[in-house]
């Protein structure tokens, strides 16, 4: 009896996979055999935190169009970026983003990042930008004060080994908390992840990146009603009238809208933007410390030519070039940005992809395309952003995916860059950094965001 049941189960599974393969839109696309039958293959690609590198290896082996699942195709040809991530929104977001939706009153809530509704995305962006514009003077002040705290706390650690990756999170979470609620949370002064939010965030987003590969199999989401209860707590903080959340609360028409906007702000800024700024800050430090010539050139610029943040806005400054190049080499988000091919299909490199096929251009792969970036595409070279002529610079900008593309570009991009410029200027004007041990460099993993494990450095005061 048991044997018969096993045979029956095997036949059912075999039939199901045969039907799935027959209905698959990617059977003629080159790629691993396993990818024909199951999306679990895409989870395997991410295991070990080597997803971006694994995608690069697939394209090296199979070419510019690679099947990565029964209905998933990865593209490495940079010429398709303007098509897949076009400003007309013909290629909508896939269900990968569903697992990142927070819950509100038991139901998944769309955010600027997760929504597949183009009109809704536009409305939410307008609301966020409107409130961000009104809070701009506050943002500048809070960021500068937070950097001053960072510098003061670092002075007490001179000569000691510290994990700069975690300190980047301490600072970013503190400054973001101040921007939202009008007060600091206390990570910097405690020098610790005292409530384990940073650890929890890293863990949850890593799992979410993998679960997003099989969204049809799970209803799991990144957050729950606990986010909403946390949002209500801002009313008990010292000066809630000063933060970004308060500005939105005052602008909302009704209580339900207040709560909905609160969840959106918490998700988009605290749980997303704060982490991305922290990760990028750690990445910039890593790129500088592993490239001494770039480090030396930057500190010379910061300590002799640039006296304040306003001057660092020059797009051709070395500081901006370092930030941009760090994001090119190690994008903060690792999984590909998935889009759904519209019903009229897509032609690329001799292949027809029918409507409904899920496609993506992996950032890690696109940012190493020698047709765009040159033969030294794999090298960290900030000078490329300064020395390039206008046509080359335009080509690079058009293929730069770190902040998204098209109408789905990151709404907090300018704020994030302001934070990064201000923090890097403050730290490197006051301290020299070096690896605590040159024999033990950080381990890099890439699930949802890049993580530098064991990124221990020693700081010394700059001699004036």
From TrEMBL:
Keyword Cell cycle attached: no
GO molecular function, one term: oxidoreductase activity, acting on paired donors, with incorporation or reduction of molecular oxygen
InterPro entries cross-referenced by the UniProt entry: Cyt_P450, Cyt_P450_CS, Cyt_P450_E_grp-I, Cyt_P450_sf, Cytochrome_P450_monoxygenase
PROSITE patterns assigned: CYTOCHROME_P450
Signal peptide range: 1-24
Record-linked Pfam families: p450
Residues binding heme, per UniProt: 410
Domain of life: Eukaryota
Name assigned to this protein: Cytochrome P450
Organism: Hymenoscyphus fraxineus
């Amino acid at each position: 009896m048991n044997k018969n049941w096993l045979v029956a189960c095997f036949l059912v599974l075999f039939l199901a996979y045969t039907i799935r393969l027959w209905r698959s839109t990617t059977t003629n696309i080159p790629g691993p055999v396993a990818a024909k039958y199951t999306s679990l293959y895409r989870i395997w690609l991410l295991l070990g935190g080597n997803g971006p590198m694994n995608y690069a290896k697939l394209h090296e082996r199979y070419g510019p169009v690679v099947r990565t699942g029964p209905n998933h195709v990865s593209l490495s040809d940079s010429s398709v970026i303007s098509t897949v991530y076009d400003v007309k929104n013909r290629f909508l977001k896939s269900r990968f983003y569903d697992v990142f939706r927070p819950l509100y009153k038991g139901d998944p809530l769309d955010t600027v990042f997760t929504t597949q509704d183009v009109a809704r995305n536009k409305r939410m962006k307008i609301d966020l930008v409107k409130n961000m514009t009104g809070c701009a003077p506050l943002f500048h002040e809070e960021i500068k004060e937070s950097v001053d705290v960072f510098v003061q706390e670092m002075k007490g650690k001179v000569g000691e080994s510290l994990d700069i990756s975690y300190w980047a999170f301490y600072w970013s979470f503190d400054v973001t908390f101040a921007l939202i609620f009008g007060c600091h949370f206390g990570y910097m002064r405690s020098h610790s992840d005292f409530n384990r939010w940073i650890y929890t965030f890293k863990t949850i987003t890593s799992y979410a990146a993998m679960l997003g590969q099989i969204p049809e199999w799970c209803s799991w989401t990144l957050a729950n009603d606990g986010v909403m209860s946390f949002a209500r707590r801002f009313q008990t903080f010292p000066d809630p009238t000063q933060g970004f959340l308060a500005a939105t609360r005052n602008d909302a028409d009704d209580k339900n809208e207040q709560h909905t906007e609160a969840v959106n702000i918490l998700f988009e800024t605290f749980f997303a933007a704060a982490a991305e700024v922290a990760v990028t800050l750690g990445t910039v430090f890593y790129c500088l410390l592993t490239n001494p010539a770039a480090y030396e050139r930057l500190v010379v610029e910061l300590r002799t030519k640039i006296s304040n943040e306003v001057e660092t806005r020059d797009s051709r400054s070395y500081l901006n070039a370092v930030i941009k190049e760090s994001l090119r080499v190690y994008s903060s988000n690792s999984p590909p940005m998935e889009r759904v091919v519209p019903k009229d299909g897509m032609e690329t490199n001799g292949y027809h992809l029918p409507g409904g096929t899920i496609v993506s251009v992996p950032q890690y792969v696109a940012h190493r395309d020698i047709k765009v970036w040159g033969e030294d595409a794999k090298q960290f070279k900030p000078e490329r952003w300064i020395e390039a002529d206008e046509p080359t610079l335009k080509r690079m900008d058009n293929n730069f995916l770190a902040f998204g593309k098209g109408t789905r570009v990151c709404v907090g991009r300018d704020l994030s860059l302001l934070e990064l410029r201000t923090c890097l200027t403050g730290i490197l004007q006051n301290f020299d950094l070096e690896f605590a041990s040159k024999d033990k460099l950080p381990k890099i993993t890439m699930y949802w965001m890049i993580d530098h494990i064991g990124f221990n450095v020693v700081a010394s005061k700059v001699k004036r």
